[in-house]
Amino acid sequence: MNVYNGLEALIQPFARATVAVGTFDGVHRGHQAIIRMAVDDARAANRPAIVFTFDRHPYELLAPDRVPGYLTTPAQRLPLIALQGTDELMIARFNTELASLTAEEFVQTVLKDKLGAESIIIGGDFHFGKGRSGNEEYLRSVQDRFGFRLHVHPPVYYNEMPVHSTNIRELIRTGNVSDAETLLGHPYLLAGTVVHGQQLGRTLGYPTANLALTVNQVVPADGIYAVEAIWEEGRKWGGGV
Questions:
Q1: pTM for the whole thing?
Q2: Could you give the C-alpha distances from 13 to 54, 59, 89, 156, 189, in angstroms and in order?
Q3: Looking at residue 7, which CATH number applies to its domain?
Q4: What is the pLDDT along the chain (241 residues), one digit of tens a residue?
Q5: Measured at the alpha carbon of residue 70, what is the angle toward residues 231 and 129, in degrees to the nearest 5?
Q6: 213 belongs to a structural domain
Q7: Is 148 a member of any domain?
Q8: Does 191 reside within a domain?
Q9: How many domains does the chain have?
């Protein structure tokens, strides 16, 4: 999988492609289904499959007080997306320039001119463009004019539970990490740096590690959990919190 950190990293525009578009925070089973739909469509048409996403949640810029807790860090998303079989990953920088594009400008300058989209794959709740004016209805209305086919993946359910980032965040916040991981389709990982605490645990014979999160990830409710700590060199330790 080739990774482009920013639209400016794309030197040569794609002539043709299938493009899956979304924030994909968590890369949960619903996101995985969208990406695999794009991969299948691309293989059938003999063109590359591109996942287009953002380097941060749009609310970081547009509504900082409404930013939801993240389910994955940017680094955690990469291998999860790669596992779905996509050829290319475009991580656009969500800045004021990108946020100011209208839905039509986004389709023309990004999806068509840069990515060569002949098929666009989204989930039904995806919005884009200035004022969130771009959505499924808009894309269906312009697909003939811009020369692409829109495919919308239906809502995904797993074990009769709706797979949605909002639901997963709530499960984690209320301590139901097991069900959250079922919907994610992979373990829930917290990334951070170990920092000094009050060092009380060692006096009880149970030394602890205090974690300063790398990004604002969702933290599970207070409780007792079995965990596995993974050091950056790949070493692992079992433990509990």
A1: 0.90
A2: 18, 28, 14, 32, 35
A3: 3.40.50.620
A4: 999 999 999 999 999 999 999 999 999 999 999 999 999 999 999 999 999 999 999 999 989 999 999 999 989 999 999 999 999 999 999 999 999 999 999 999 999 999 999 999 999 889 999 988 999 999 999 999 999 999 999 999 998 889 999 999 999 999 999 999 999 999 999 888 877 656 554 555 566 667 788 889 999 998 878 887 777 766 776 766 5
A5: 135
A6: no
A7: yes
A8: no
A9: 1
